[in-house]
Design brief:
Keywords: Hydrolase. The chain is α+β, with helices and mostly antiparallel strands. Helices cover 35% and strands 14% of the residues. The strands form 3 sheets. The protein has a 6-stranded antiparallel sheet with strand order 2-1-11-10-9-8, with helices on both faces. α1 packs antiparallel against α12, α2 crosses α6 and α2 crosses α7. The protein is globular, with a radius of gyration of 19 Å.
Length: 347
């Protein structure tokens, strides 16, 4: 364990040296808690005397799809109010008579629904949230459901809308009440952040409108367009909160109170759900690159430079949080670090 910790420290530090990201926070652990953790680099290159800290708040981007959508969908599924395999038009009036009506929630969770690949919400539907919702739910399909695996942000946006419809609550309220509060995730929330949290937040990309790096406001344009709350992105979190979430997935007895989803949803999600289609997918989670799906080491990434891995087979989880988007949108340098990080942790 000591050798692997040293290798992770060096790997993460090399990313700072090579300007893959300004700074990073990482941890590995199991159901009993964090086994190793560390930080590297600085919060903001404009303030080189302020180091990255264990309690740095990150814009986790598409980890929202797991923390807010996958988890709340699981809660609704486990209480019997969220059908996975019924066509949406059989229980969702907004989908009735529309192309989306033939899609199932499982199609959306496996990215096989055939919905359009790009969000492009403002270009297609304008800036009114109601018009955006109607446009997304009434749009023609890109291809027939179940034909191909194609990652699209729209899957999570639609599932977020559906969870709101079935629960009668906004997604942020649903996630807070059913997931984050029971798990003790006290620093996880949708933005924009209040000033006291913004000061601890890792800045992301330069905002051309203001000439400043985004900090405490979601990088994702769709999230900003929709007021900060949507299924695509918009959540901010800290390392310890993500550790609580992943520990619970491995052992439900670790939670201070039971959230809405449980072992049945975890088992369903961290198993292959796409048959012979490639690339292989679970429910929103997917097997980590370079691993055999049979090893059941699953991962989800965030565009800002975040990622979390979990392996029920090994009883291990890992988190790597960076603000790589501060420097570049080029994915390749961080991809190499992520794959090496996963290899060390789950070797």
């Amino acid at each position: 364990m000591e050798d692997s910790t040293d290798r992770i420290k060096q790997l993460v530090a090399d990313g700072v040296r090579d300007k893959v990201y300004p700074g990073a926070v990482w941890a590995t652990g199991n159901a009993t808690g964090i086994k190793a953790r560390g930080t590297a680099g600085v919060l903001d290159p404009a303030e080189p005397d302020i180091p990255m800290r264990p309690d740095t708040v990150f814009d986790v981007a598409s980890l929202t799809k797991i923390l807010a959508v996958w988890s709340t969908v699981g809660a609704l599924w486990e209480d019997g109010s969220f059908p996975l395999d019924e066509p949406l038009d059989t229980f969702w009036p907004e989908a009735t008579g529309r192309p989306l009506g033939q899609v199932t929630a499982r199609h959306l969770l496996t990215h096989t629904a055939g919905v359009p690949l790009r969000a492009q919400l403002k270009n297609l539907y304008g800036t009114d949230p109601a018009a955006i919702r109607a446009g997304v739910l009434h749009e023609a399909l890109h291809r027939p459901p179940g034909e191909a695996v194609e990652y699209t942000d729209r899957a999570a946006l639609i599932l977020g809308y559906l969870a709101e419809h079935l629960s009668g609550r906004r997604l942020d309220q649903l996630a807070h009440t059913h997931i984050w509060q029971p798990l003790g995730m006290a620093h996880t929330r949708f933005g924009p952040l209040l000033p006291e949290l913004t000061v601890r937040c890792a800045p992301t990309e330069l905002d051309e409108d203001t000439g400043r790096h985004l900090k405490g406001t979601a990088h994702d344009f769709s999230a900003r367009l929709l007021g900060g709350v949507c299924g695509i992105a918009g959540t901010f979190s800290v390392l310890d909160d993500l550790a609580r979430f992943l520990r619970y997935m491995l052992d439900p007895t670790t939670a201070p109170a039971a959230p809405g989803f449980g072992p049945s949803w975890v088992e369903e999600s961290l198993s292959v759900q796409t048959g012979t289609l490639e690339p292989v997918r679970g429910l929103f989670w997917h097997p980590a690159p370079g691993t055999d799906p049979a090893d059941r080491t699953y991962v989800h990434y965030g565009f800002t430079g975040t990622g979390m891995w979990i392996s029920p087979k090994r009883g291990t989880w890992a988190v790597l949080l960076t603000n790589k988007l501060y420097y570049t949108r080029d994915r390749e340098p961080l991809t190499r670090i992520r794959n090496a990080f996963r290899s060390v942790v789950f070797n």
